[in-house]
Structure formats: C-alpha cells, structure tokens
Design brief:
about 0% strand; about 75% helix
C-alpha cells in the first residue's frame, strides 16, 4: 500500500467522522422541533409518571447536555435503550432488522448490477433498434413509477389474487423475500442500465476500440474485453451508495411488505418519537453510505488505474 493511498484513506476517514458529526447534530436538533415527545402519546400518563420516564431516559436534562450524550453514544455505537420498545436496546433492534434488510438489500443490489450492466450493454450494441427502444422504455418506466405503486401492485397480484407469494417474513422462508427484492432492484437496475448504455456508447467510438477492431478482434472480445472494462466504471461509483441506501433506506418498501427490517424500525421510531432509535438508524445509514462510497471509490481506482486519488 503506497503512501498516497494511505493518505487518501485517512483523509476520507476524517471526512467520514465530520460527516457523521454533522448528520448527528442536524438529526438531534431537528427532532427537538417536532411537537410532543416519546411519552406524550401514552394513554393516562400522570405528570409524576411522565417526569419519572423523562428522568429515566435523560430527557429532563438541558438540551445541550442531551446533545453531548447523544453524540458520545453515536460515536461509540452504543445508543442505549429504546424509549418505546420496553426492555430492548437500540443495538439489538438494529441487529435484528439487519438480519432481514442486509441479505435482502445485498441480493437486490447484485441483481441490479448484473441485469443493469447486461441490459445497458445490449441496448448500446443494438442502438436505435427495437431491442434498444424496448429496454429504454422499460428502464424509463421503472425510474418514473414510484416504488410504492410497484410494490402495491406486485403484492396485490401475486400475494392476494394469485396467492403464490407468502407474506410471513419470519416463517415464510426465502420465497417470502422474492417480491421485496424485485421491487428494491427495479429502480437501480433501470438506472444502471442507462449508465451502462451511455458509457458503452462512448467507449464504442473511442480510438482504442477502432484499433482493436482493426487488429481483427471479434465483437464479443471487443465488448467484454475492452468496452465493459471502461463502461463499468460509472456503475462502480453508483454501486456504493446504492447498496447502503437499499439496505437501510427501503423505508416504504419494508412498510408495504411488512418486512421487520431497518426501514420499518426507522419509520416506527419517527412516528413514535423514539429518539434513541432515530439516532441509531440515522447513524447506521450514514456510516454505511460513507463506508460504501469509500469502497466504491477505491474499486474505481482498481478498474481505472489512470484515476488519481486526491
């Protein structure tokens, strides 16, 4: 590992710490602007009980002192107990949610990369043809249609009408995750398809491709040996944040399919004003985005060594 690479990684880690600090700060203070609190919705809670609950979770302390406590917990990844789910730690809730969100998001991301790269390459190869137009129409529709509409339609058709898709994600097995994975992969597949098509078209007109053809290279070798190596670079840049957002950002999808993942935990924490769980899920999402972005940037350097790390 050369000195420039080490310097680059250290610089990105420092920026990651700064990013995490800014996100935690904004999240904490914006949460204070929401009327009410985690215990104001409790039925028949007396003033004494409310005061005891606030004291138990540190909500009776001055706001700046609460902020310092939250910052310390976020950077130690110890978010304390949930304010709404009695007897459960936020870390346990996050780990429990990741058991569903992590494999589901990982598989959806892999499907998006594979099919997006393949369809984008085919569309570029058959430019202005019927196949190209069909792929572009489908990819545009996948981007344009809101994911909650697609999820609702798939759930209605395959689970309610045809009754071939189980919805018990605890005991339903792998088949229960087919519809959520398909829904999660549609948008990134369409986006990667368009990225790959554009990059492939640029590469097909490059001088080195003309030279390769002049040397007698077959179309297959030109496409997979030369073109894809360069056209996959934009996909790598997009893949890092994509994986992080799919894993922890599938809020609406997990709610529609009732998957007990991170997305559902995040939505429930906001609606219930569970401050500690909000901070935990926000910190986890920020951490994953920063790490996956760094990984994708390093992979981009591996694919294209001419890129200088700054």
């Amino acid at each position: 590992m050369n000195a420039k690479l080490v310097k680059y990684i250290l610089k990105r880690l420092l920026l990651a710490v700064l990013t995490l600090f800014v996100v935690v700060t904004f999240t904490f203070w914006f949460m204070q602007l929401i009327p009410g609190g985690p215990f104001t919705s409790e039925k028949s809670v007396s003033a004494e009980t409310l005061a005891a609950l606030n004291a138990k979770y540190g909500l009776d302390k001055p706001l700046f002192q609460q902020y310092l406590i939250y910052v310390g917990r976020c950077f130690s990844f110890d978010f304390g107990p949930s304010m709404k789910q009695k007897g459960r730690l936020v870390n346990d809730i996050l780990v429990s949610g990741l058991k569903y969100s992590l494999p589901m998001g990982f598989i959806a991301g892999i499907i998006a990369i594979l099919f997006g790269t393949l369809l984008g390459s085919i569309a570029a190869k058959k430019k202005s043809g019927i196949l190209d137009r069909v792929i572009m129409i489908l990819s545009t529709a996948s981007v344009a249609f809101p994911t909650f509409i697609i999820a609702t339609l798939l759930l209605y058709l395959f689970a309610m009408k045809l009754n071939i898709a189980p919805t018990d994600y605890v005991n339903g097995g792998i088949s229960a995750f087919v519809l959520p994975i398909i829904t999660l992969s549609l948008y990134p597949t369409a986006y990667i398809t368009r990225l790959t098509r554009s990059a492939t078209l640029d590469s097909l007109g490059a001088d080195y491709i003309i030279t390769a053809r002049a040397k007698g290279c077959s179309n297959t070798r030109v496409l997979f040996g030369h073109v894809l190596k360069n056209s996959v670079a934009p996909t790598i840049t997009y893949a890092g944040p994509m994986f992080a957002s799919i894993i922890t950002g599938s809020l609406v999808i997990e709610q529609i399919y009732q998957v007990p993942g991170i997305g559902s935990a995040f939505v429930n924490s906001i609606t219930g004003r569970d401050y500690s769980l909000v901070m935990g899920t926000t910190t986890l999402l920020t951490f994953l985005i920063v790490v996956m972005t760094l990984v994708s940037d390093l992979l981009y350097k591996v694919v294209n060594p001419r890129i200088e790390l700054e």
